[in-house]
Structure formats: structure tokens, C-alpha cells
Amino acid sequence: TIAAFAKKALALGEIHVIANVAGYGKGQPFVDNTPDFWDRWDQLETAFDALHRWQGDSGPGHWAVIDMLPLGRIGIRQHPLNGPDRPTRFTPNEQRALMTLACVGQSPLMFGGDLPSLDDATRALLTRDEVLAVNQQGRNGREVYRDCSQSAVIRMCDLPGGREWALAIFSFTARAAKSVTLTPEMKAVAG
Fold it and tell me: How far apart (Å, rounded) are the C-alpha atoms in residues 92 and 62?
């Protein structure tokens, strides 16, 4: 199998780039959490649910994968039924939401666009040191709040040293931003 080959090659030190061979279950290097998604918000929403289902089961040696990041220019060599070569349909806010979700959830960051044609805005989104540090150093990514209508989700993770967190607040609606107060219950869940 591909997984057995990859493990053997890694043990021999002969692989420097790992392909996405996700989807072979808990306790393995990658756990593919979502169906393949492209650049539609309804598909991205499934990643929130998937990370929630797997929280507590993702960490060093077995990361939860939400999917490749369909940012920048995508669809260059894809199947004709998936659409033409094009820029992502995600708005700038949706692109930030995707990157934030992937980072606070410690999902492996696999870029799904065309690197040679990367625009400045996408490059800036993918290379922000503070955000990448949350992805690489954060642990115990978890959802701490979801309102009953799913119009807001709060996710967080612990940062090194045990005294700081990364907190991400997501809105699922286009209406004006609302304030969210961290209640004592939410603070207790947060740790």
C-alpha cells in the first residue's frame, strides 16, 4: 500500500516530500476529515464539523487534515466536471477563515493552488509568521463555543508554555459583527 511504502521510505530517510495519503484512520500520520472540497463556503463549513468530531484525537504523529487549501489560482489540471482553471471563488474574508481554521486546528497546510502564479495577497495569507506559528506550535485545538443557529463558532488551541491560547472567532452570516463575551463556562472549557 501507499501508506506502507511511505512509512518504509521515511524510516530509511529517503523521502523529503510527503504526498497527501490521508484517510487511513485514527492513530495514523494523517486523518482525512472532510470530503474533497474546493472553493465553496458550504464545503468549507464541513471542515468545522470534522475538526469538532476529531478534537482530542489529533496531535503529533496523527494530524487531522481538513483538506488542501484551494487558494490563489486553482483548477489548472483538474477534471472538466470540477470547473475551469480560475482564481479561487473564496472571498478574501473566506480565505482568511479557511487559513485561520486550518492553523488553529493544527491541520497540515497543503496548498492546493498554483505556486508559480501566486498573487501577493495569497502569498501574504500563506506566509504570516504569527498564524503559521499557531499551526506549527499550537496543541489541543478545540471548539469552545457554537451558537444553536451555527452563526458563530469559537475555536482555540494552547500555545507553548501553557499560559497563552490562540482564539479564533468565526461568523457564518453576512450580518454585522456581534460581540461575544467569554463566560466563566467557556473559560473553564478553555482551560
Answer: 30
Beta bridge partners of residue 65, listed in sequence order = 32
**CA-to-CA distance for 90 and 109, rounded, in angstroms?**
17
DSSP 8-state assignment for residue 155: E
Give the separation between CA 146 and CA 97, rounded to whole angstroms. Answer: 16
Cα separation of 7 and 13, whole Å? Answer: 10
User: What proportion of the chain, given as a percentage, has pLDDT over 90?
Assistant: 30
Distance CA 67, CA 73 (A): 16
Which residues, at least 6 apart from 9, have a Cβ–Cβ distance to it below 8 Å? 15
Q: What is the pTM of this model?
A: 0.76
Report the Cα–Cα distance between both ends of the chain, in Å, rounded.
41
